[in-house]
Amino acid sequence: MTGAPLLSVEGVFKYFGGVHAVDGVSFTLQPGRVTALIGPNGAGKSTLFALIAGQYVPDRGRLLFAGRDGSREMGRLSAAQRCALGIARTFQTAQAFGTLTALENVQLAHAAHARRTLNAWRPLAQDHAAQAQSLLVRVGLGGQAARAAADMPYADLKRLELAIALAAAPRLLLMDEPTAGMAPAERFALMDLVRALSAESRLTVLFTEHSMDVVFGYAERLLVLSRGKLIADGAPEAVRRDPVAQAAYFGDAA
Ligand code: ADP
Ligand code: MG
Q1: What is the pLDDT of residues 15-27, one digit of tens each?
Q2: Which of 12, 29, 121, 211 minimizes the number of CB atoms within 10 Å of its CB?
Q3: Contact at 8 Å (CB) between 56 and 50?
């Protein structure tokens, strides 16, 4: 695990009044790895995601990202600026526009990304459609292009959301509870896809997850948050045996 990290989180804090949501967290992510961020409800996982993706500004600390223009401090950049650097996220509840088709949703995301990153050269609408179709194929929705998002089953909607995130050509993909609400077989199929995407294009993935079979089946590394602090960081089996992580989280779960 050497080489330059893609993301460095250095002593980051975010308080909401008296709530220490993220309380001095530091870690780095190496390119191309799949890491799970786990911890009890209220541990600060979603807040940490929002700090990385740009919905929140840290009270203290630094966030360094090795984006398209080299490594830079990004703690005060907007979410759109971070997206242009190569950070995309999916949300716990799917964010697609229901009245638009699957293809239109991805096309919009692709066009928005082109506007953010390529000022002088704007691909034609046709080009966005072709790119969007190939993203749909990549997530296994090649045959669903003309379907309205609102009519898609939940598992397909999660795949569509993944295609929307990939339209920004991310280097870092943040997924907040990607498999929440899915049946076990669908969960594994979605995570198989995420793992394949990561391996194909060296995409770095950080995901939060409550399902232990997904965590231990797919993460190469676990970060455990408890009350805003990182209390364990390492290989899944080592973290599973860690007494501190067990006391704070696994208890009877593992
Ligand atoms: P997790 O995603 O691990 O369940 P969160 O990051 O959502 O945890 O929340 C961490 C803590 O911060 C919780 O105590 C939560 O109530 C609090 N919190 C999160 N967002 C806000 C907010 N916008 N305003 C006030 N408190 C918040
Ligand atoms: Mg959360």
Answers
A1: 999 999 999 999 9
A2: 121
A3: yes
